[in-house]
Amino acid sequence: MGQSESSGKPLGGSAGIISILVPGGLFVWFLQFLPAVAAGETILFRYDWVPALGVSIGMLIDGLSLSFALLITGIGTLVTLYSSSYLGGHVHYSRFVCYLLSFMLGMLGLVLSDNLLALFVFWEVTTIASYLLIGFSADESKSRRNALQALLVTGTGGLAFLAGIILLGAATGTFELSEIEGSLAEHPLYLPIFILVVLGAFTKSAQVPFHFWLPNAMAAPTPVSAYLHSATMVKGGVYLLARLNPSLGGTDLWFWTLTLFGGVTAVFASILAIKQIDIKQVLAYTTLMALGTLVMFIGLGTSDAIKAAMVFLLVHSFYKASLFLMIGVVDHGTGTRDATVLRGLTRAMPFTALAAALAALSMAGIPPLFGFIGKEFFYKASLSAEIGMFWVTACAFLASALMFAAAGIVAWRPFTGRLAETPVTPHEGPWAMLIGPLLLAALGLGLGLFPDYAEVLVRPATAAVYGAAVEVDLYLFKEVNSALILSLVTFALGWLIYMGHGTLRDRLRRSPDRFDPGWDRLMDGVLAGCKWQANLIQTGQLRRYIFVTFLTLAVALVWTIWRAGLVPTMELGDDLRVKHWAVLIAITAGAAIVAFTNSRMTAVAALGVVGVGVALIFITFGAPDVAITQLLVEVLVVVLVAVAMLKLPQMNVEHVKAVRVWDLLLALTIGVSTTVVLLTVMDTPFDLRLTEFFEQASAPVAFGRNIVNVILVDFRALDTFGEIAVVAIAALGAYALLRGTRRPNP
Amino acid sequence: MKSSLIVRAATRLLVGLLLLFSIWMLLRGHNEPGGGFIGGLIGSTGFILYAIAHGCRAAREALRLEPQTIAMVGLGVALAAGAFAAIPGDALFTGQWLFLWPSEGSKGVPLSNILVFDIGVYLVVLGSVLTLVLALEEEV
């Protein structure tokens, strides 16, 4: 990890101060919308970006997007403040700030976009920014590999998502989220849209079986982990599912896919969390658990379930960001993150211990923390589900119990007991690194004691996801009910797991991880496939390439002629004179010599005859400019080929004879079919409007009598400019190729 | 490789003539067959002839600028000529004309950005062809 002691400059210098002010300012700016949104309003800004494609940048601020926006900017401010100390002295700190801010802006764009295409663009911005962030320590091969893995997994999902968006646009006739109305469940495109969108969301939010990239993203510096895992990127998929719940939700398919995958992810990830030794990895897996739970409850789709999901979204963001930042402080202060080593840090790191305790209590769901409320609403929603009640309750229960144990591993064990030996003598972190975790942990306590404040956000967010207003009344304790009893059982089971987690971990560690090595095997397979097809197609023989190119052309021509039933009338004009026939014979003879000669020089000369013959045709039909150009190009080609020939190896006459038949056949096919096409073109009446316009306008408007040139440099100067640009680029490309392959000169 | 005396002597004359001819072709292009494209091709044959007779190094020295540079300058000239139309507020690449000293029966000496554009085309073609041919000849 690219850590170093903090630099001399406070807050990491100007880059650091900017990085703190931007999210901070945005956070304050977003706060102003809170009263209106809490009152149930939806605010919409719109700016046309690419009007021709129907892409506009619209900002849709409702309960859901505002919750996300406040989390992103609020946690963003604390994370950037934290990183100004954590990474402030790093050589590439400015670069890091740049990545982090682009990531944040991408995420903000994602949750605020009203237009689905704009949303997709921002979605990809977060993918690319997270790639850069995960691979921040680019000198470590593990970092690079994990960054690439995240990019490929989420990028592939992103492509599926794009296809889903396009289908969604086709099905609804609009790309504006605010204009999509009603459910699409009955639409014939529902199934493909559902599959593609869910693929995008599941890869982004790391649901089983796409979960493996997320714990690997831990290669990123700690503030990034906090940011990636708490409020942002990985919740992109959850956001998407929540956002589209009104239009795509409510079907059996939606219900079962989301609850099954979400439930499996939640339980599977919590078990894997216990297996980890690195406490940062423990947290990474508990994030997966949170994502799975959110997906499961969105899938459940009842108003209680959506409410529980929205509460949990806030709960999780606070405690998870706090814990990740806390781990950074511990790592910084002790030099290790090994759960088996760290003990008794409370005395040395009192503030860190306080933050860890508060956050972990919230994570374990113990009253009076906000996490308790989250868990109560979970249980309430799952117990009241009409279908799938047992499945959802079982998953939520198991995951919560394991979460209780994980909270103990992360925040109880390292701080209690007798102080253990660590690589660095434990010391407290600087204030800039403590504010974030303390504040976030305190929020968990504050909102637990006064849940009314959370209602301001949860109510409109639930309404936005559910599609209709929902009564939201958050409370710490109301009565003894089944949910509360289930909570108590959870604590008991969680405690047992915590007590036995050492043995459990050792047993779990004996079973190997299959998904991550599986990924490597998949990549190896893809590379082998690429190699195989490259060897098959890219032979490196120019002859072969030209043959295949012309073969494609021939097939296209013949197919077109056959499909369109083109039959030229074969009416030759009666103005064919001796000179025309002479030219024709010269061309044919030249072509025949090229085909049958065994000498390259003869072939080139004969080819020149063909070219000159074509130039003669241009002259006889009154196109001197074209004829001159043709002649000059012929001269140049002869020079070029003659020069190149000096370097070519001796011609293999036997080989030429063997393939000649096929070349001849191909050449004849192309010649004949081109002739047929041209003759058919001649049969159709010419539209002379353009010709007449140029003839009339050339002299009076453009002051030139040579129409060809006037068109080139005046009427269609833009086209010509494009062409000369192509000429220049082609020359540069060829130059680079010639020079690049040059042997080192003596 | 030393080329024959006849070729070298003839080249001395021909190169000058070809270059002059190419500029003449460029200038007459608006009314008679010719233009920047053809002019550029003729000009490059002049230099290629010189390279065949006296070697590529001599041809490069005669050019003074790298052929790639000439091509890029030409592209810039053409773009500038097109962009010039924006000054009077027309769309890009609109022809702008100025006739100097008009008199009875004659419009006067025509000046236009069109000619500048054609000069740009000339330079691009000359530079690109020479880039290719000289690099190829030196390779062999």
TrEMBL record, chain A:
Membrane topology: Multi-pass membrane protein
Physiological role: NDH-1 shuttles electrons from NADH, via FMN and iron-sulfur (Fe-S) centers, to quinones in the respiratory chain. The immediate electron acceptor for the enzyme in this species is believed to be ubiquinone. Couples the redox reaction to proton translocation (for every two electrons transferred, four hydrogen ions are translocated across the cytoplasmic membrane), and thus conserves the redox energy in a proton gradient.
PANTHER family according to UniProt: NA(+)/H(+) ANTIPORTER SUBUNIT (PTHR43373), NA(+)_H(+) ANTIPORTER SUBUNIT A (PTHR43373:SF1)
Name this polypeptide is given: Multicomponent Na+:H+ antiporter subunit A
Domain MrpA C-terminal/MbhD span(s) in chain numbering: 586-650
All residue ranges annotated as the MrpA C-terminal/MbhE domain in the record: 660-742
GO cellular component: plasma membrane
Domain NADH-Ubiquinone oxidoreductase (complex I) chain 5 N-terminal stretches: 52-96
Residue ranges constituting the NADH:quinone oxidoreductase/Mrp antiporter transmembrane domain according to the UniProt record: 113-393
Keyword annotations from UniProtKB, A to Z: Antiport, Cell membrane, Ion transport, Membrane, Transmembrane, Transmembrane helix, Transport
GO molecular function: antiporter activity
Transmembrane segments: 12-32, 52-81, 93-112, 118-138, 150-170, 190-214, 254-275, 282-302, 308-330, 351-370, 390-411, 431-450, 480-500, 545-566, 578-596, 603-621, 627-649, 661-682, 720-738
TrEMBL record, chain B:
A Pfam family: MnhB
Predominant location: membrane
Location in the cell: Cell membrane
Membrane association type: Multi-pass membrane protein
Keywords: Cell membrane, Membrane, Transmembrane, Transmembrane helix
Ranges for domain Na+/H+ antiporter MnhB subunit-related protein: 6-131
Spans traversing the lipid bilayer: 9-27, 33-52, 73-94, 114-136
InterPro entries: CPA3_antiporter_subunitB, MnhB
Cellular component GO terms held in the UniProt record: plasma membrane
NCBIfam families the record matches: PRK12509.1
Family: Belongs to the CPA3 antiporters (TC 2.A.63) subunit B family.
Protein name: Multicomponent Na+:H+ antiporter subunit B
Species of origin: Jannaschia seohaensis
Taxon lineage: Bacteria, Pseudomonadati, Pseudomonadota, Alphaproteobacteria, Rhodobacterales
